[in-house]
């Protein structure tokens, strides 16, 4: 008799539109996009931003050994110090050079000072 007329509005319009996109890169890219450059010096931050931008960033598959504590704590690529050691030493986790802005105790600090010199004139005379 009367056929079951189901309203078609309930049916999925596009069942396969966005199910599985085998785009390996997009997932990786998203993961890479989350990689921050916190604590890194300008040089290292630039390097990583560049790699991210040009899809050259290669995430670590296994944790890397920290140069200071020798523990495999480094989870981000292109770093030689773990976050804790870098912070404790006030160094850039990337190149392990002094990168903390402000008081530069090492010679690397002088390098930074040279960069920011120019507006330094003035003050108590
Ligand atoms: Zn460490
Ligand atoms: Zn650095």
From TrEMBL:
Q: Where do the segments described as Disordered lie?
A: 1-24, 96-125
User: What name does this protein carry?
Assistant: Uncharacterized protein
Organism encoding this protein: Chondrus crispus
